[in-house]
Amino acid sequence: MLMLVNCSNCRTPLQLPPGATSIRCVICQAVTQIAAAPPAPPQPSYLQNTPSFNGYNNYHPPPPSPYNHAPPGPPPPAHGRKKAVIIGIAYKNTSSELKGCITDAKCMKHLLLSKFMFPESSIIMLTEEETDPTRIPTKHNIRMAMFWLVQGCQPGDSLVFHYSGHGGQQRNYTGDELDGYDETLCPLDFEIQGSIVDNEVNATLVRPLPPGVKLHAIIDSCHSGTVLDLPYLCRMDRNGRYTWEDHRPRNGTWKGTSGGEAISFSGCDDDQTSADTALLSKVTSTGVMTYAFIQAIERGQGATYGSILTAMRSTIRKTDSDLGGGSANSLLSMLLSGASAPSIGLTQEPQLSANEQFDVYAKSFSL
Which residue among the candidates 140, 162, 166, 247 is catalytic per the annotation? Predict the structure, then answer.
């Protein structure tokens, strides 16, 4: 059985070997002493019989400098696996209940299967509707799914992490956030187990990525602009002009990859909130950001990262006009039908962040 413990110094999640009484953190090298270990939660079936997963703690990150870049030379030859983790959390029967997040997860899975040819066996879904207890979106299960996504990745692999649910902020005391706040994801059991902080998301999904591996994160939650803690944020104005903001921590903490590529679309800026609404589909609630992202792809506006971002923002800003007229597009029609929507009056602005700067209107988008 796998068991996760937090580093006593930097709080990075570490996998405790069976019977171990201490463990050294691969990030900060601190040694964490372990008391009598509690019983480990059930191991997800998708992590069973995978020895390479236990080797995660052998990963050595690059030196802690914000100026490191990918190794020189061409990337290794392509390998080409596709893997995805899709999370939709409704927080049913609580004061935090959301209406569109499970629909978002189903639509995103359909998009990956039908448009980008992801094998169904390579997609892990975590929602409250799952019958397997290891696929309920608890903090432990989300952590294990994130580890699964990057484990054993090879050159040419395409990884997708989609999250639709609550997001939050908390005060940062380590000096690695420009605005003084960490961004968080809220698991189903966040009120008991706590949230997943952006530092952990970065350490788990971003830093291990080797050369030739590409990760796309699609995060539909509040305060999600920099929830992957990536070094650069694309700051785009309403006319489509943009500059890259440098978000590398001034304390020198490394937040990039180990040579791979990490790009994130998020629902809003760090100081904004994301909405779910039925006004877009006219039938059922969806996350505004997820709907806009899928619509951009289906309408042929997904050629470049810039075209996707501007199309998403246009959908959200649009007032006094419909969303294209007639029936919903073919991807969304799996769960949605209906037509034009009235002005939705939303102020959220989707964001794009990455481990390296690039020309958003020239770089082709692909999963």
Answer: 166
